[in-house]
Amino acid sequence: MNWNDKIAKQVSDIPRSGIREFFDLVTGRSDIISLGVGEPDFVTPWHIREAAIYSLEQGRTTYTSNYGLESLRQSIVKYVKGFFDVEYNPANEVLVTVGVSEAIDIALRAILNPGDEVLYHEPCYVSYAPSVNMAYGVAKAVPTSKKDLFALNPEVLAKAITPKTKVLMLNFPTNPTGAVAPLETLKAIAELCIKHDLIVITDEIYSELRYDDEKHVSIASLPGMKERTLLLHGFSKAFAMTGFRLGYACGPEPLISAMMKIHQYSMLCAPIMSQEAAIEALEHGTPAMLKMRESYRQRRNYLVKRLNDMGLDCHLPGGAFYVFPDISKFGLSSKEFATRLLMEKQVAAVPGTAFGESGEGFLRCCYATAFEQIQEACDRMESFVKSL
Amino acid sequence: MSVEPLLELLATHARLSDADLADRLNTTENEVRAKREACEREGRILGYQAVINDDVSEAERVAAFIEVKMTPERDGGFDRLATRISRFDEVSSCYLASGGFDLLVLVEGTSMKEIAQFVSEKLSTLGGVLSTSTHFHLKTYKKNGCIFEKPVQPERLIVAP
Questions:
Q1: ipTM score here?
Q2: Cys bridge to A88: A28, A93, A344, A379, which one at CB 3.0-4.6 A?
Q3: SS3 B100
Q4: pLDDT-based confidence at B60, cuts 50/70/90?
């Protein structure tokens, strides 16, 4: 069969992932120190794993409500109220999903009509634009810059809004830049969203992982925003539960109900053992999470200091577990820099361009890896930079 | 810089140099040294030790947990006698505990006979000690936060979004 014209256009049009491209270069090699991973190096805390095991022992292997276990939704609203200071009704304003990724997908499918525009700040997580395109929307990147420490500049955002703009996607702290949005910036963004009647999808997956001693504020908690905001969060990063594939969406009932329609026919429900583990994480996981956060903080401080000492210009990011040094002064593209670093010094870091065009000139280094590995990676990078 | 993060880090990474500690705590080597030395002077840090897996060590080691019941004294309760017991070289740890006994004493030696002798001749003959109950150690699974079974390092992708 000739498959060339058989794949749906909106899928075949999606370019090959920059991460995937880079992944092929490193496959099968054991000599590499990787700063290229986007997940915690911690194993899920034992008491959370144990809760999953216990639920299996108890024979809890069934479907759950499409919305997710009621007890989990109760825990979610309690946690979200405590952490974000926004209140939701567990009966119809919360949907448990298979990771935030699923939540983004079904939210966009529930909202977008063909041709609707979605704005998102860039550099950003790799799935945003493809998810918009697969939902027949038009993805429009709003570039962020080092000058704003990669927080979305409201003036730049205002210029990008058109009559077709329906959704703004936010992600603070940001993968790959570690950016956080100052409160004043968030307020200005909220004002624009209200003025232009935009829906906001805020991906809060890194929100616990802040190191700047500022209380994390979600745009959902600002006046007038709850009614137009979909708050997405999950367990992967803060609780080191990537493989559990569990997230949730909190938002206005009509949107959650529309998302539920898609979710019930595609996923049916998230795996019950992950849901049981998630209850344990929300109810008792904070001390373990804070310990992991302190460890990330120490590694961030070290990595940023070393990168600056070796002559890479690197701002101190406020959150997530990535640093985003500026490598433009060496006259190499991000891809060239990352490829040569990999080939010559066996250190894997992801070119900024894997996260959008505005990542050109930067490199994403993840510090969710053992301290000794970071030290060795820094030594190798230092000798690489000297050789340029 | 508060001293707590330094103590927390030293509790699990005692071999880090002052410079390495400073890197992790985002401060200077001098500040770390000053804080660490102050803790040592004030007795907040009593020592730095390796956690050794005796089960694979070649040296013959025997240990026992001994529950000790004793009579408290009018002035000072259990402290004077507990301190006296702690002074023996054979005693590696000594805790006052609530419940069915008063002191939990960890005794180490090179043979069961040596430990039995210590209990019968030294420990139980002390004035104030009412009774002892000796439990010989068989195997250690976790000590000072270290799990003895070597963890399997789960494989991660080298690059992921």
A1: 0.77
A2: A93
A3: coil
A4: confident
